[in-house]
Amino acid sequence: MTPKSFPPTVDPLPNDADAPASASAPLAEDRYRAPALDKGLDILELLARQPQGLTRAEIVKEMDRNASEIYRMLERLVARQYVMRSLSGDRYSLSLKLFTLAHMHPPLNRLVTQAIPIMEAFAQKAEQACHMGIYDQGNVLITAQVNGPGTWSMTIRVGGHVGLVDTASGQVLLAFADASQAQQMLAQHTALEGEVPFESDALASALSVIRKQGYFERDSLQSFGVADISCPIFGPDHSALAALTCPYVRRIDRHVGPDQKTVRLLLQQAAQALSLTQGGFAPASRHA
């Protein structure tokens, strides 16, 4: 049998079963090099360790590379939205694109699949609707929605976006993001139609209250007669991976359902069951 041949520019992979181990054999990462890709990954890994970002000169110094090649690579990373340039234009930091990619469809589908039964159980006990939202391109994407068991409930359309700064879901996601992540989320935020404006001091105060309480509970800024309750679903890094929200509608007829406090406790239990951290809720001090 004629042995299989390989193109002259590609080395055949060694047969581990037949070839003896050799200390002089080249490592796999040295045999198939892509210098431009390595350079881009080096920049991303460097910026990941610098929450305040770095100037171009600092990046050049840290990487010990030619300034012109670093400039070209940075411009491409900015153009592809993996890296953000500061408003003053002199510092570079990671955007949330890698975070977004890491939470695209397969992981999101798993989260939704796990969340739906828990959300349905909450809706039955609380007699209220609930929905789940994640951060997406400057606002909040509604990824799951469960109606209450009765005739009356408040629902949010799955696949729609709601505001980052003026909704329960958005403020919970901001409150339980680390400082650099929250800053990037706000930098990417664009106001949606009808959005209620928030001054930075007022927003900071609201987020501080949410962190201390561990949840959001306040009258809705979008609808009369609705009290929004929202709890964080924590990821393994103790940041909010998603927000679980109930637009609580109080019945005023003869039906007696669970009161608002009971509904909030049920929602906290549901969010805790979905959280990936040890023991569910992360300590507030982690996000201060």
Number of domains: 2
Alpha-carbon distance between the two ends: 69 Å
Helix content: 25-40%
Spatial shape: elongated
CATH class of the largest domain: Alpha Beta
Give me the CATH architecture of the largest domain, please. 2-Layer Sandwich
Q: Beta-strand percentage?
A: 15-25%
The secondary-structure element order is: HHHHEEHHEEEHHHEEEH
Report the biggest beta sheet as strand number plus sense, adding barrel if it closes. Answer: 6 strands, antiparallel
Per DSSP E runs of 2 or more residues, the count of β-strands stands at 8
Mean pLDDT: 84
Give the CATH topology of the largest domain.
Beta-Lactamase
Question: Compute the gyration radius: what is it?
Answer: 24 Å
CATH H-level homologous superfamily name of the largest domain: GAF domain
Model regions low in confidence, pLDDT < 50 over at least 5 residues: 1-28, 278-288
Task: Give the class from helix and strand content and strand pairing.
Answer: alpha+beta
Quaternary: single chain
Question: How would the blueprint of this fold be written?
Answer:
Blueprint: H1 28-31, H2 35-48, H3 56-63, H4 67-79, E1 83-85, E2 92-94, H5 97-102, H6 105-126, E3 130-136, E4 139-146, E5 161-162, H7 168-175, H8 179-188, H9 200-213, E6 216-219, E7 226-234, E8 240-249, H10 260-274
Antiparallel strand pairs: 1-2, 3-4, 3-8, 4-5, 6-7, 7-8
